[in-house]
């Protein structure tokens, strides 16, 4: 479902991604672990072209994201087409980034109506179904400012799902939350994982990785150091750097 | 709570005494006396000529002048902020040409005094007696006399709008910059089209910081229109001058103008309050 091949990305003189390759199958849950500055978030952001790449390819559902290939050269697609591709890729931010001047219902309904041009009545049903799924039906007409962090992130997840995406990307979804609110967000994500949603999750929640991930990817200094099932990467890491990291966070 | 709280004998818990503000009361008393004195002098000093004020407050020539002041304010604000909005977006554009042009505009129009600009537009006919429309450097399709196209009111509205646009551009730009970058990113990640992103997501949030400054500017413009008196346009300030030159009731007529400016500004302040409340929704 997601095929990343040889992706390089620099910010000025900082070489953040140094040739990352990674494949995520349909229905698979991949958790990316790694120390801060290892390039986890940047990698995630190249998957929906929030970050341009310097070299390499990212494909989702068999289609190159953000670029058109002509021989050995990649040409950036027009914005229209990039936006269309993004509707197939849900993204959940660390800081939620809900639209504060819109109600919960309007936040979730915005993209299906304006980006996918789906009929309003149909979208209204989708919104109700998704809010029920994240347990926030009673907050449909509230503004994000009145919700707790955990509730906001659940709305953000519903907003990403409203596009009926092929994959959902999570960028440290629980890092901005008070500790007692982390559980409710992880519950929603576990439920998604069980329902067969293809997910890529950047997180520091080792517990979530162990329990919900099919694949754990350990990234360090812009390279995939090790990847495999959680029982292997977390409990029996092969590389010294993975071992050092796991022992520090456990 | 009351049943589980440790038993405390009534009367043993110290209460906080209200803080007294004797000097506040004293100062308030002083202010009341001063206001009473001012009010008394306004009523009893015959030099204010309230009956003359009453006579001219709703005189047809004054009402026409108020209308022209309103018209100039409206034209200056609407076209000023429309152009200012475009300039702000240009200035924030990654395109260096657009951004430089916007910067240059703000540079020139903030530098040149409004009164000078107004005289300049008023005298445009000296520079270009005829304006011709056609192919650049090529043949013209038709041309008109500059005086016919740009009369005094057009010149005044043009000057006010162009001047206002430079300030509006900076206000709008500040408002757009104040929107958290994550908002743009989230909208882009959801695939929302560019125009929709701007008008539905970014602009309404920018309005929260644009409106108070814009309100200031527009209220400033109500009074700023008085500088067009140099073009002999019968707006409020010019009109009362004309009247008191004729009848010599200087103070009374200045008072008429002051009352109207106060009224217009009050209405605008109330409108601003409601607009702010509208864009503040979702934020307690």
Structural key phrases:
heterodimer; A: 250 residues; four-stranded antiparallel beta sheet; 12 strands; 36% helix; B: 284 residues; mainly alpha; MetI-like fold; two-stranded antiparallel sheet; 12 helices; 4% strand
Please specify the SSE layout and strand pairing:
The complex is a heterodimer of chains A (250) and B (284).
Chain A: E1 2-11, E2 14-24, E3 29-33, H1 40-47, E4 55-60, E5 63-64, E6 67-70, E7 73-76, H2 79-86, E8 89-92, H3 104-114, H4 120-133, H5 149-161, E9 167-171, H6 179-194, E10 198-202, H7 206-212, E11 215-220, E12 223-228, H8 230-233, H9 240-249
Parallel strand pairs in A: 3-10, 3-11, 8-9, 9-10
Antiparallel strand pairs in A: 1-2, 1-4, 4-5, 6-7, 11-12
Helix pairs in contact in A: 3-4, 3-5, 4-5, 5-6
Chain B: H1 22-44, H2 50-57, H3 60-92, H4 96-111, H5 114-122, H6 124-127, E1 130-134, E2 140-145, H7 146-149, H8 152-178, H9 181-189, H10 194-224, H11 236-247, H12 250-279
Antiparallel strand pairs in B: 1-2
Helix pairs in contact in B: 2-12, 3-4, 3-8, 3-10, 3-11, 4-8, 5-8, 8-10, 9-10, 10-12, 11-12
Rg over C-alpha atoms of chain A, rounded to the nearest angstrom:
18 Å
Question: What overall geometry of chain B do the principal axes of the alpha carbons give?
Answer: flat
Helix content of chain B: over 70%
Extract low-pLDDT stretches of chain A.
none
Radius of gyration of chain B: 27 Å
Distance between the termini of chain B: 30 Å
């Amino acid at each position: 479902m997601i095929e990343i091949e040889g992706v390089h990305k620099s910010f000025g003189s900082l070489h953040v991604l140094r040739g990352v390759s990674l494949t995520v199958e349909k229905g698979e849950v991949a958790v990316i672990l790694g120390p801060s500055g290892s390039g986890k978030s940047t990698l995630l952001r190249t998957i929906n072209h929030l970050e341009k790449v310097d070299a390499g390819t990212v494909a989702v559902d068999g289609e190159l994201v953000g670029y058109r290939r002509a021989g050995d050269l990649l040409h950036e697609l027009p914005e229209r087409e990039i936006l269309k591709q993004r509707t197939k890729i849900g993204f959940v931010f660390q800081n939620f980034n809900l639209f504060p001047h819109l109600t919960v219902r309007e936040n979730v309904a915005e993209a299906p109506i304006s980006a996918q041009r789906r009929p309003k009545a149909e979208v209204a049903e989708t919104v109700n179904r998704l809010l029920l799924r994240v347990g926030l039906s009673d907050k449909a007409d509230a503004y994000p400012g009145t919700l707790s962090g955990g509730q906001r992130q659940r709305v953000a997840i519903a907003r990403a799902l409203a596009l009926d995406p092929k994959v959902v990307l999570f960028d440290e979804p629980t890092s901005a939350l008070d500790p007692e609110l982390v559980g409710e967000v992880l519950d929603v994500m576990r439920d998604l994982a069980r329902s067969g949603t293809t997910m890529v999750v950047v997180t520091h929640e080792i517990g979530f990785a162990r329990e919900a991930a099919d694949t754990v990817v350990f990234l360090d200094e812009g390279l995939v150091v090790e990847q495999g099932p959680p029982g292997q990467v977390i409990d029996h890491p092969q590389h010294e750097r993975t071992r050092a990291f796991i022992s520090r966070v456990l | 709570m009351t049943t589980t709280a440790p038993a405390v004998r009534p009367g043993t818990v110290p209460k906080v005494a209200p803080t007294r503000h004797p000097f506040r009361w004293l100062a308030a008393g002083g202010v009341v006396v001063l206001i009473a004195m001012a009010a008394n002098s306004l009523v009893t000093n015959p030099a204010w000529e309230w009956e003359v004020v009453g006579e001219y407050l709703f005189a047809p020539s004054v009402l026409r002048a108020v209308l022209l002041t309103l018209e100039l304010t409206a034209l200056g604000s609407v076209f000023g902020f429309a152009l200012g909005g475009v300039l702000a977006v240009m200035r924030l554009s990654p395109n260096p040409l657009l951004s430089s042009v916007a910067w240059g505009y703000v540079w020139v129009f903030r530098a040149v005094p409004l009164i000078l600009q107004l005289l300049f537009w008023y005298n445009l006919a000296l520079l270009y007696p005829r304006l011709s429309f056609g192919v650049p450097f090529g043949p013209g399709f038709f041309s008109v006399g500059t005086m016919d196209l740009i009369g005094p009111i057009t010149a005044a509205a043009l000057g006010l709008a162009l001047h206002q646009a430079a300030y509006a551009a900076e206000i709008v730009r500040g408002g757009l910059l104040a929107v958290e970058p994550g908002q743009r990113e989230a909208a882009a990640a959801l695939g929302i089209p560019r125009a929709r992103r701007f008008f539905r997501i970014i602009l309404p949030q920018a309005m929260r910081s644009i409106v108070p400054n814009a309100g200031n500017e527009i209220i400033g413009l109500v009074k700023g229109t008085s500088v067009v008196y140099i073009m002999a346009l019968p707006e409020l300030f010019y009109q009362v001058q004309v009247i008191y030159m004729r009848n010599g009731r200087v103070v009374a007529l200045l008072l008429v103008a002051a009352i109207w400016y106060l009224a217009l500004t009050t209405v605008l302040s109330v409108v601003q309050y409601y607009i702010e409340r509208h864009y503040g929704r979702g934020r307690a």
